[in-house]
Amino acid sequence: MALRGIRGAVTVSNDSAEEVLKATRELLDAITIENELLISDIASVLFTVTSDIKSVFPAEAARTMGWDAVPLLCFQEIEVPGALPKCIRVLIHINTNKLQKDIKHVYIGEAKKLRKDLN
Question: Which residues are noted in the entry as prephenate-binding (predicted)?
Fold first, then answer.
């Protein structure tokens, strides 16, 4: 069994806890469905947010989805001029027998701009 990474991102219009948590749940749900994940497959999850998101930790959304036994950690994204604002990124480490090419990364809404090669 291999350890693989699944990437994803989503943006919000406003930095409100409600909107950040809703967008994060939408992203995690989409990644879960696309990759047929079970919570028991997840080794850890890293979140980053741009500096304009301060209302809540995205990891809180994962905990409310039952991922409370999964190690979760949040970071602030590097402030690069011109970078996509109000963006939540995630890297999910999973234990899987899937090949790297079979992993489906998920970018939602404005975050699709980050990986045009996947759309």
Answer: 7, 89, 107
Tally the domains of the chain. Answer: 1
4 assigned binding-site residue: no
Pick the catalytic residue from 25, 26, 74, 110. 74
CATH of the domain at 76: 3.30.1330.40
Active site residue 4: no
Q: What is the DSSP string of 2-57?
A: EEEEEEEEEE-SS--HHHHHHHHHHHHHHHHHHTT--GGGEEEEEEEE-TT--S--
Residue 23 in any domain: the answer is yes
pLDDT band, residue 117 (cuts 50/70/90): confident
pTM above 0.70, yes or no: yes
Task: For residue 26, indicate whether it is catalytic.
Answer: no
Identify the active-site residue in 19, 26, 60, 115: 115
Annotated active-site residue in 26, 77, 87, 110: 77
